[in-house]
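Question (not urgent): is this output format expected?
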Amino acid sequence: MHLEKVRSRRSFLGLAGILLLLAGIPPSLGLRMRLSDSPYALVDRWPLLGAGQGLFIATRPNISNAELKELGTRLRDEFRNEPNMVVQIFDDATAAKDARTGSRIIGESRFRAAMAHQKASYLKNAAAGQHSLTILSEPKEIVRY
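Got this back:
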């Protein structure tokens, strides 16, 4: 009985987080990660031309390169059946949303401030045989899968 209440509460809180994102209000990433055991919050998703998905996601602030590599492995496993993937990884949900919106709409200075929060980019193109995670630290690091 107790387990059913916990599952019901988790489902409700997950739905609440989605509704907050749709309203433009990022949910607490700490709460989201604790409830779903996910290292990221989905900010936006769109279909790629041909096949596959594009994602803008947000992790927690101050994520390390080692944690980004773990996230890359998780994305590889999670989307193994997708032929193509483009995932832009940010350490702030609002910045990810602003970057997705684009400089023409939000203005160049706000866009640049948002892009400063981009930590990595995960790319997969099955036809070209490309599959990598680019960590945007100095120096830039590329992990090939």
